[in-house]
Structures
1.
Amino acid sequence: MWLSPVYPSPQDDNGYDISDYQGIEPVFGSLADFDELLEAVHARGMRLVMDLVVNHTSDEHPWFTESRSSTDNPKRDWYWWRPARAGHPAGAPGAEPTNWRSAFSGPAWELDEPTQEYFLHLFSRRQPDLNWENPEVRQAIYAMMRWWLDRGVDGFRMDVINMISKDTALPDGAVVGDDGLADGSSYYTCGPRIHEFLQEMHREVFTGRADRLLTVGEMPGVTVEEARLMTDPARGEVDMVFQFEHVQLDQGLTKWDVHPLRLTALKASLGRWQAGLAEVGWNSLYWNNHDQPRAVSRFGDDGAYRVRSATMLATVLHLHRGTPYVYQGEELGMTNVPFASIDDFRDIESLNYYAEAVALGADPGAVLAALRVMSRDNARTPMQWDATTHAGFTTGTPWLPVNPNHDVINAEAARADEGSVFHHYRRLIALRHTEPAVAHGDFTMLLPDDERVYAFTRSLDDVQLLVLGSFSSEPVEVSVPQGEAWAGAELLLGNVARDISPVDLPLAPWEARVYRRVIAPAADLARGEYKS
Ligand code: NOJ
């Protein structure tokens, strides 16, 4: 279980702006409540992973308050402070030390009036970036991590951890877009000291601990080659990474420039990650998290085929090789939200983008349309427990209103219905435990040019699994290479009830099937692979 940040925070970015790394935000409870939760999680044989947000802090963190207090404060160097660009008066347009754009719109530098210097913030101006070049910063972070492990937590999901090493020359980037700013990400994505920092963290925090811990690094812009290095167990960096390629295929230059997804592009991307981390390293698998719109609305059909397409997506994802992540509500097939106006949004990324785009002359209706599809708030409405007021999430006023469809889509209804998305997720998780090929088998992509069918095999020893998933609202013919080898194969799992289901039976809309066969020695002989 991975908790998004629950630390004290002014909530400028939903808790990703932390003002105290060793406490719990009162809105969520206390440290005593946290300990109780951890104990209860452990008692159920589960593990709990904290969100580690150490690329930046909140501007209300005492480290930053000290750092900003004067240019000669001992913590001044804990953050990235720079004077205005040479020849420019501080505060003048374009005087920022670099022309980088922040992830939440506007320049990545903010002028601090009293000292007339700028500080770097790759995210909101209330999230100043820590200076990892300073060894005291690193040691303070490692000490805090050890403190949580000593308390019993089982690992960390590391927020934008591939951004902690910056090019200290701070070069300008090439200007792209209408705001005169540049994408500076090549100067802080997997920067010059990233492997050194991750290895040092591993040594200082994790080495020698008896418990089996889990680390997953969130890494926007990471390549397969970098990820292989980062997740090679012999190098001692992280167990796995969250990469972003497959959740950017339906976008243009920015995430708000929404394109239809081409299934062939999705297969090419995920297939490349499967192959790239096959021998060394490990994949994480996800469609959803708190930053992504709901998968069933994005990649499936959240109308007539909501249950069918949500279960198909789950089947395809969970049968890949790697560690699957389920984001709260995904297992119910929760959908995007019918936001009526900009006043319905809370997320800083969405609000800043809207304000900036409209100020630059964009049509507010078109901006809103893009937000409805891509905004992070789609994933941030309350968990839908039941059909009552606020979906049983709270008796107070929730941060965002619940999705109006909670009367139909909710945990109580899903648990009572064997055909629900929830029960399908349970079957997928059970299958991972009973069929070793799911966790350990090799992966081979099939039908790479098919725009409607996702197909692959998994192989372990003499067991082979075949996974078919339809991304179409029409029935589709499917022709599996060497389909005759699958005659009589066992249908392990599917999302359409069938009496018979040979592999060449056309797939119903959004149908998923998983077959299993045991490769007989005779078949091996015929292929000349049998070794006595
Ligand atoms: C990635 C997190 O997932 C996102 O929610 C957050 O806004 C940024 N990092 C900044 O911490």
2.
Amino acid sequence: MKIYLDSANLEDVSRALESGRIDGVTTNPSIIAREGRPFKACIEDILRMGPHLTVLAEVVSKSAAAMEAEARDLASLSAAIVIKLPCTAEGIAAARKLSGSGIRTTVTLVFSLNQAIAAACAGADFVAPFVGRLDDIDSDGIGLVRSIKETLVAHSMKTQVIAASVRSPFSVSRLFIAGADIVTLPYKLLGQMIQHPLTDQGMAAFERDWVKVPD
Ligand code: G3P
């Protein structure tokens, strides 16, 4: 199991790195736009801050050929980069081209099992189902992750599942139960997933009792 941070905000990245709980950072065009800085500068800063991190960077071109060129340029920044490609016909064609050339790919914006199957058959290293956006339209995001994982395992596919668009601590644990290999989270959820009132009460009791221990 791995947890990634779903943010390009350098303060978030720094605090998440200090927590010692992330193995990667995921970005997309909307996440990058929030930072108001050039795309590559954002990615390079994240790579510098966490040399052990896997960093996902998304292409924005429309055609498979242009996506491939963009991917090769981004991948040249570091071996830690994984290229995100949209789950469109062009994106999947680009994933097929890149998968044979040592560049790791994630097919993103996945909302159905058939989309995940197409991405896996094209050789994508990861698929990223958007759980919260399915839940938003009264569909079963966690159920989709379970179906994708079961299907990939049944067919011995190498493709791993990165659950994305995750909105609650409840979803995080259920996504791992459902078989997600990686769950990517906004910074706030990193904290929320380990909060428990009984831990706080237990710590307060330990502190109260400790002062009674004689020197
Ligand atoms: O990882 C994908 C994520 O950034 C999208 O999240 O909340 O916009 O659906 P959201």
3.
Amino acid sequence: MASEFELIARYFTRTAPTGLLGVGDDCALFPVPPGEQVATSTDLLLEGRHFFPDVDPRALGHKALAVNLSDLAAMGARPIGCVLGLALPRLDEPWLAAFADGFHALAAAHGCPLIGGDTTRSAHDLAISVTVFGAVPAGQALRRDGAQVGDDIWVSGELGAADVAYRLLDGQYPADAALLAATRGALEWPQPQVALGLALRGIAHAAIDLSDGLLQDLGHILAASRVGACVEFDRMPAAAALAAMDAAPLQRAVLGGGDVYQLCFTAPAARRDAVLAAGRAANARVTRIGQTLAQPGLIVLDGQGRPMTALPAGFDHFPAA
Ligand code: ADP
Ligand code: MG
């Protein structure tokens, strides 16, 4: 039976890059470049709430870090390192090895080494907490409160696939192996848009990552920036895999579906070419879906240019009764 320290050494200790103190001491140490601010964010993932108990552990390791890197992306911050808290109900080394592989592979791809954490046995379900640290030149972070009236509203990537995969796996939609195969990657292997966030510094006025649904997350930008918006459903980049879906579930997936981990951002209309160039540089599709307005509120126009009613709500852990 491996001890706690053997597990940490085996699965979570990698050589820290020069200049960082990684796993093994009481704290990790990393330098902050002069003139830069630290951006930090934590996400907690709980079995049964954020992932299915039988999910591929490699995908889970990937996603636990991906959702945090997505927060750095939304701020335009460059990853520095991360820490990992694990509450394990049982010791399953093949599971742990695959989880660690998925985690370290994404960490390496983004230059975000695992530099510390905590590992305990849990009397309850599996819980995973990841905290990321990034750096951004002082004053250049992409915040939620920077949108200005008349900005274009953009989203990256495609929308809706993760929501459909989730509902298929959860049994809310009748089994459809082809649709699941076409959407599952979006749910289990989200790709955080770190390069796009960096490329949008100095161009975007405000940004957020899409974790709880486009309308809800865009709503956070609007509220923080004290502006309204009008967006057009037909402009939105619905995932190609959803082409055959009925209108109601399609709207629910595109407007309200969570777990997207793409960016929604605003930028001045005069910077359209710069946004498109940032998308190309980051190898990300970027789509303009509407604009901000002085009038508060969020209007969604249908294909006929009529305001849609009965809009889907995004995800809320504590919905009002
Ligand atoms: P402490 O008693 O100071 O909390 P621990 O014995 O919990 O230290 O951890 C020993 C070292 O291993 C620390 O550097 C800690 O950051 C690291 N560590 C523990 N668990 C993890 C993990 N899941 N991932 C990465 N590093 C970890
Ligand atoms: Mg500890």
